[in-house]
Amino acid sequence: MRVVTFVRELQDLLGEERVLADPLRRHVYGKDGGIRRGDVAVVTLPATVGEVAEIVRIASRHAIPVVPRGAGTGLAGGAVPTSPSLVVSLTRLTEIEVDVESSTAWVGAGVLNLDLSKHTAAFGLHFAPDPSSQAACTIGGNVANNSGGPHCLAEGSTVNHVLAVELVTAAGEVLMLGADAPDPVGLDLRGIVVGSEGTLGIVTRVLVKLTPNPPAARTLLAAFDRVEDAAATVSGIIAEGIVPAALEMMDQPMTIAVERFVGAGFPTDAAAVLLAEVTGHPAAVAAEAELVRAVAESNHATRIRVAADQAERDLLWKGRKAAFGAVAQLAPDYYLHDTVVPRTKLVEVLAQVYDIADRYDLAIMNVFHAGDGNLHPLMAFDASQEGVLDRVHAAADEVARVCVAAGGSLSGEHGIGLEKRDLMPLVFSEADLDAQARLVEAFDPDRLFNPDKVLPTGSRCFDMGRPVPEGIWI
Ligand SMILES: Cc1cc2nc3c(=O)[nH]c(=O)nc-3n(C[C@H](O)[C@H](O)[C@H](O)COP(=O)(O)OP(=O)(O)OC[C@H]3O[C@@H](n4cnc5c(N)ncnc54)[C@H](O)[C@@H]3O)c2cc1C
Questions:
Q1: pTM of the model
Q2: How many domains is the chain partitioned into structurally?
Q3: 305: exposed, middle or buried (C-beta count within 10 Å: 0-12, 13-18, 19+)?
Q4: Which pLDDT score, from 0 to 100, does residue 421 have?
Q5: Is residue 79 in contact with ligand 1, taking CB distance under 6 Å?
Q6: What pLDDT is recorded for position 4?
Q7: Per-residue pLDDT tens for 241-252?
Q8: What is the residue range of 337's domain?
Q9: Same domain for 315 and 346?
């Protein structure tokens, strides 16, 4: 085994225990929640912004690509290296500093999403974006992917809750983008960094807005014999002028999987199940819940259940948020897609999604943020079967193309990463892609951070990939 200068310099900075260079541990960091695997040269576990900046300077001197990593729950291959890379795991940046008076908090990039809301619960506050993976994913990952969640329909996704970002650049400088003022002067570079998927720098701290816990909430579950009726209910609720806190839909195969897994009393004979939650002041909540019920009834809901208390609400949400885990009962692997379509096209596009799955002989089930047209078709499969991965990728591409053709987009919240990179020309012109590549170049002229992600090769006149220097690997 040959330990080269690069690794020695990292060990001098962090000590041997925070530089992971043995093959097994490197292997673990080669994958995220998706189905691709990459090559890790070495993993570092910094605990301060100063250490992150110094790591970047060392990597830059040695021209080693840097892949920022949170918890690795991403589903688009964003944290998967495309060539032997330095993975910078941010999970040790876990400080939280709450300012109750201004309802804000400075949060380390490695803080888990759910831990932040647990920490602020004592002040009657929470962090509104709530990805289903919130028990595992980090705030840094949420910022990098501009993540959403079931409760983002009314509150908006991560970008609406980030006031400022501390960013380590490719030069190893520490920038402060944004401010606690509502409308800070200068260009909005904070807005550019949110959703940049680790291509512009490493997020080390974030100033987030905290949202008051609602005084009242009501969760309703409605069952339908036809997916069309559930979709019409979604449109009907919005047409009534109500924007519920959440409006989620599951088809029958997904409902069956969830019910077997969680036992939350989801009706397994329904073609579609709608989960709606309204929050706010008690009188308004009661009135809105009645309106939701009336719209569902007028669209032929076969059953409507209103959660009687917090325990029942929690159980229903546990079912929804455990949907992806529930699939493990059916097959060892899954591919979770993420696209967006106009709400009015939900039914038409779903029919095409089922048809694609049939043609590729794949089991498919759907759970999605129906309120904002964010589809999550999920294909369950066994990767050990020959040829199945090719069919999964081909089917996933077709689903994306169908959604774009219906006036939708490539991703609602999981990001582009590697998974959708080559589909970017479906939604962006050459000039659009060139503008984005120039922006990346302005932050990171040598493409140190997360090379090969988001923008397809050829987006700009320089080569996005680059050769890895010889002799650095162990
Ligand atoms: C079961 C399951 C359910 C999910 N549900 C949702 C959902 O409801 N909504 C949703 O939006 N997503 C969901 N996701 C996807 C995923 O959890 C989110 O994208 C999450 O924000 C990723 O966070 P992470 O810490 O795991 O990031 P990682 O997977 O480690 O990284 C994701 C991307 O962010 C970059 N990155 C990570 N940290 C930093 C940093 N500090 N600075 C710069 N770049 C960084 C990485 O390079 C990579 O490109 C789900 C995933 C799973 C497995």
A1: 0.94
A2: 3
A3: middle
A4: 96
A5: yes
A6: 78
A7: 989 999 999 999
A8: 331-422
A9: no
